Every structure is written in C-alpha cells, then in structure tokens.
Amino acid sequence: QVQLVESGGGLVQAGGSLRLSCAASVSIFRLNAMGWYRQPPGKQRELVAAITRGGSTSIADSVKGRFTISRDIAKSTVYLQMNSLKPEDTAVYYCNADKSTGVVENYWGQGTQVTVSS
C-alpha cells in the first residue's frame, strides 16, 4: 500500500502561480513513476505531468512551458509548479503513484482543488 498526501491547491487569479506537493509513504525509488492528473468540471481525468524513478519527466502539451514537475527524494515528495495559470487550468488535481510489478498497482491521492479566476 502507498499513501499519497497532497497539498497546495487553492484559488488564484489568472497569471498567478501555485505549487502542489504530493508526499508518498514509501521511497520514490520503490515506485515506477509518480504523476499529476487533473479533472476539470464535467471532463475526464487527464495526465498533466509525470516523473519516472530515473528522473525523466514528461509534460502535457497544454501546460508545457508553464508547469514543471520535480521531486525531493529525501522527502519522498513530488511537486507540480504551476505558473502563468489560466482559467482553463481549473480542476481537481490528483497525485498518482505507479508501483506496478507484473500486475497493475496504482495509487491516488485525495485530490486538491485548483481554481483560477479570470
């Protein structure tokens, strides 16, 4: 079992910044990857950014150049730095951890609301 605790969401004006944090209950090196997903109102959940065990990162085209994913290995924490926020970034943001080893094993955080006002 992996517990994920998210923090950092809130209300911000367009053009502002927020940093989301996701603390895992196990070492990051026990996970294949960690990522951030978001689910806007009435829409499907989508991948925003991910970072692998080896440190490789990927960012969705919709947020490239504005969002950055990083990690603190000692704290088993992954961050999502969100700059130049737009109203369309409004969503519930979820942290995900992939611990699959032959069988799918995914864990989710409780979600944190990000609201960007125009």
Descriptive account of the structure:
This protein is an all-beta fold and 118 residues long. The protein has no helices and eleven strands. It has strands spanning 4-7, 10-13, 18-24, 33-39, 46-52, 57-59, 67-72, 77-82, 91-98, 106-108, 112-117. The strands form two sheets. Strands 2, 4, 5, 6, 9, 10 and 11 form a seven-stranded mixed beta sheet that branches. A four-stranded antiparallel beta sheet has the order 1-3-8-7, with no helix packed on it. A hairpin with a 6-residue loop joins strand 4 (33-39) and strand 5. It is globular and about 45 Å long.
Quick synopsis:
With 118 residues, the protein is an all-beta fold. It is built from no helices and eleven strands.
Element layout with pairings:
Blueprint: E1 4-7, E2 10-13, E3 18-24, E4 33-39, E5 46-52, E6 57-59, E7 67-72, E8 77-82, E9 91-98, E10 106-108, E11 112-117
Parallel strand pairs: 2-11
Antiparallel strand pairs: 1-3, 3-8, 4-5, 4-9, 5-6, 7-8, 9-10, 9-11
Descriptive tags:
seven-stranded mixed sheet, 118 residues, mainly beta
Helix content: under 10%
Main beta-sheet strand count, sense and barrel state: 7 strands, mixed
Continuous helix count: 0
Indicate the mean pLDDT: 96
Distance between the termini: 40 Å
Principal-axis shape equals globular
Rg computed from alpha carbons, rounded to a whole number of angstroms: 14 Å
Structure class: mainly beta
Strand content: over 45%
Please tally the β strands and state the result: 11
User: What string, H for helix and E for strand, traces the elements in order?
Assistant: EEEEEEEEEEE
The poorly predicted ranges are: none
Q: Please identify the oligomeric state.
A: single chain
